[in-house]
Amino acid sequence: MNTQMFSEAMGEIDDRYIEKAISYQAKKSSASHTKRWFLPLVAAIMAVLLAGTAVAAVVIYGDLWRQNPSNDPVESVRSALENQAGKNYTVKIDVKSVEIDEAETERVVERFVKGVIADRRGWSDEYLAEHFLVVKAAYSVEYDHTQTTRSDGEVTMYFYLIQDVDNGVWTIVDNSGNVNLSEDHSAQESGGLSAMSTQEQIFSYLSDLFTGAYSPYYDGLHYEINKYEETTDESGLTATFLWTMYHLGKGWDIEMDEGVEEQMNCWLQVKAAVKKDGTLDLETIAVFLDTSVTGPANYDTPIEESFPKQLTD
To answer: Which of 21-35, 84-98, 186-200, 273-287 has the lowest mean pLDDT?
Structure first.
């Protein structure tokens, strides 16, 4: 394999394969905070580089959503959704809507694609402007829970597609995680912040924050708070607790990972002003990560600094 062939093959490897290469071992233990998830990536990349001709096999046997690529990006996504009905863990799926999302396309390109992804795959700014799209799909789904831990309910999924410049065909190359709106927003929809305890308000805020940061990487996101403690004074509220994020792979047809749930644990501290009605002032809220390894907690890092910035993180 010469340098040009190798570079082209590397450009075709989707990030899930690197993730899958390191996640099998990662399932045996939980990291203490999010930054540790991504440290093994360097070793994984080196392993791929050293694999040489094995690259071609990865590209050939990877199976994203079972799609029928079309000249219409909406139809490419619709076919992938309809084909979910044939998977052994899907009881039924009802597609509500499928449409191009220009705003999400711009956000994904700027935040996740430009830089490492674009450079590795040889996607110029001009190519991305003309041949990259995000399609938003809304659907309801029911799963066989003897075969998967994926959540039933109303789902919003974003699919990332590229267009073949020669034949005009649009193909799904990646997708966001499964954002299950029926679970993530049930507390807010039932009565708003004023009907929620302080802990519930924090849980709702962090659920949205983590879903926004990690839905491009993981499916089946849901969360849990344990060992919650809070204090209040004239400056506002301070709460500390153990935060657990549960997640799945994003729906790739890789047998060993189908339906396998993993988790990440980290200690967080939340500070916020409290309004007269007892609700948190979300404009003042700040979340800090405990970066200590041993000894007293050290809440010195804003949680946003630990979030991944590229799909290859």
So the answer is: 21-35
Is 312 in a helix, a strand, or coil?
A: coil
For residue range 107-142, list pLDDT tens digits in order.
888 877 887 778 888 889 999 999 999 999 999 989
Kind of pairing between the strands at 299-302 and 153-163: unpaired
Instruction: List residues bridging with 230 in a β-sheet.
Output: 239
pLDDT at residue 73, as a whole number: 96
Judge whether 111 and 308 are in contact, CB under 8 Å. Answer: no
pLDDT digits (tens, 9 = 90+) for 194-236: 567 899 999 999 998 998 888 877 777 889 999 999 999 888 9
Question: CB count, 10 Å around CB of 245?
Answer: 22
Cα–Cα distance for residue pair 152/104, rounded to 1 Å:
24
Residue bearing tokens 């789902």: 155
| Range in 57-61, 113-117, 158-162, 252-256 with the lowest mean pLDDT | 57-61
For residue 15 the two structure tokens come to 């990030």
3-state secondary structure (DSSP) of residue 28: coil
Nearest CA among 236, 241, 208, 202 for reference residue 222:
208
Say how far apart CA 104 and CA 156 lie, in whole Å: 13
- Where residue 227 falls (left for φ over 0; alpha for ψ -120 to 50; beta otherwise) is left
Question: What pLDDT does 168 receive?
Answer: 95
Q: Is 28 exposed, middle or buried (0-12, 13-18, 19+ CB in 10 A)?
A: exposed
Q: Are strands 90-100 and 132-143 parallel, antiparallel or unpaired?
A: antiparallel
Q: Which contacts (CB < 8 Å, 24+ apart) does range 93-96 have? A: 93/139, 93/140, 93/141, 93/142, 94/139, 94/140, 94/141, 95/137, 95/138, 95/139, 96/138, 96/139, 96/140, 96/154
Give how far Cα 100 sits from Cα of 62, 132, 173, Å.
Answer: 25, 11, 15
Q: Using CA atoms, how far apart are residues 242 and 219, in angstroms rounded to an integer?
A: 21
